């Protein structure tokens, strides 16, 4: 079974630039999550989709972050414009149905904002 | 934030010894999960314990849950160098999401 795919693996940008991350979840998984993990901390949920609907985006900084899940499969997370404090690893995860199900994580995208 | 706390923040032991990590949380939970993160394999699910369970085993892992004290512990027996990683507890809250703790960084010395 293929795992969760993410790209790119690494990205370096300057502040105020834009960046986009892509995620392809495990086939058949209805629920997709984007997490932000700052160095030394645990992952923090940014947004949770079930199929192509948003379940929770309460911790997504909506003035600069946006996410979409087209056709209930792939997802993109965008930051525009980036700030220094956005430097982190962005993790995508998927689960079969509910948030209580085991979540399977991708390798993450390490973002550095200079 | 309803994020739980893990203790200790860092733990260093000799190979072959047992490692115990603790997690405390603040709200009622549906279940509690433990994850491992290392540079090689990313974040990997280890074990899930439901709120009506008290103990669960998986290979060299043993997880306990005490809902009266709002705490859980992860025991790794007969540690190996490959167990070197960060370990996170994650609680599923009524807010319908998984909330991760800060993690315990475990180092196994040869």
Describe the structure.
The complex is a heterodimer of chains A (114) and B (110). Chain A has strands at residues 5-7, 10-13, 19-24, 31-37, 44-50, 53-56, 65-69, 75-79, 88-95, 104-105, 109-113. Chain A is 0% helix and 49% strand. Chain A is built from no helices and eleven strands. In chain A, strands 2, 4, 5, 6, 9, 10 and 11 form a seven-stranded mixed beta sheet that branches. Chain A has a four-stranded antiparallel beta sheet with strand order 1-3-8-7, with no helix packed on it. In chain A, a hairpin with a 5-residue loop joins strand 7 and strand 8. The radius of gyration of chain A is 13 Å and the shape is globular. Chain A has 114 residues and is an all-beta fold. The model of chain A has no long low-confidence stretch (mean pLDDT 93). Chain B is mainly beta. Chain B is 0% helix and 58% strand. Chain B contains no helices and eleven strands. Chain B has strands spanning 5-7, 10-14, 19-24, 31-38, 42-50, 55-58, 61-66, 71-76, 85-92, 98-100, 104-109. In chain B, strands 2, 4, 5, 9, 10 and 11 form a six-stranded mixed beta sheet that branches. In chain B, strands 1-3-8-7-6 form a five-stranded antiparallel beta sheet, with no helix packed on it. In chain B, strand 9 and strand 10 (98-100) form a beta hairpin. Chain B is globular, with a radius of gyration of 13 Å. The mean pLDDT of chain B is 90. Chains A and B meet through strand 5 and strand 10 of A and strand 5, strand 9 and strand 10 of B.
> SS-based structural class of chain A?
mainly beta
Q: Which chains have the largest interface?
A: A-B, 21 and 21 residues
Helicity of chain A, as a percent range: under 10%
User: Total strand count of chain B, please?
Assistant: 11
Count the E strands of chain A: 11
Tell me about the largest β-sheet of chain B. Answer: 6 strands, mixed
First-last Cα distance of chain B:
38 Å
Our Rg estimate of chain A from Cα atoms comes to 13 Å
Shape of chain B: globular
SSE order of chain A in H/E notation? EEEEEEEEEEE
Kindly state the mean pLDDT of chain A as a whole number?
93
Overall geometry of chain A comes to globular
What amount of the residues of chain A lies in strands?
over 45%
State the helical fraction of chain B.
under 10%
From the N-terminal CA to the C-terminal CA of chain A, the straight-line distance is 37 Å
């Amino acid at each position: 079974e293929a795992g969760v795919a993410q790209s790119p693996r690494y990205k370096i940008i300057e502040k105020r630039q834009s960046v986009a991350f892509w995620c392809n979840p495990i086939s058949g998984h209805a629920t997709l999550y984007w997490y932000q993990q700052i160095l030394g901390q645990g992952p923090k949920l940014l947004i949770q989709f079930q199929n192509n609907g948003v379940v929770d985006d309460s911790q997504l900084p909506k003035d600069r972050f946006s996410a979409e899940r087209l056709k209930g499969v792939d997802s993109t997370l965008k930051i525009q414009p980036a700030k220094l404090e956005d430097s982190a690893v962005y993790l995508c995860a998927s689960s079969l149905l509910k948030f209580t199900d085991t979540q399977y994580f991708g390798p993450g995208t390490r973002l550095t904002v200079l | 934030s309803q994020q739980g706390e893990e203790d200790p923040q860092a733990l260093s032991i000799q190979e072959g010894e047992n490692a115990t990590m603790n997690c405390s949380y603040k709200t009622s939970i549906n279940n509690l999960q433990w994850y491992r993160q290392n540079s090689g394999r990313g974040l990997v699910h280890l074990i899930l314990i439901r709120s009506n369970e008290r103990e669960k085993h998986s290979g060299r892992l043993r997880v306990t849950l005490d809902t009266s004290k709002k705490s859980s512990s992860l025991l790794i027996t007969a540690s190996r160098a490959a167990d070197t990683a960060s370990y996170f507890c994650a609680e599923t809250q009524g807010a319908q999401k998984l909330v991760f703790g800060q993690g315990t960084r475990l180092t196994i010395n040869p």
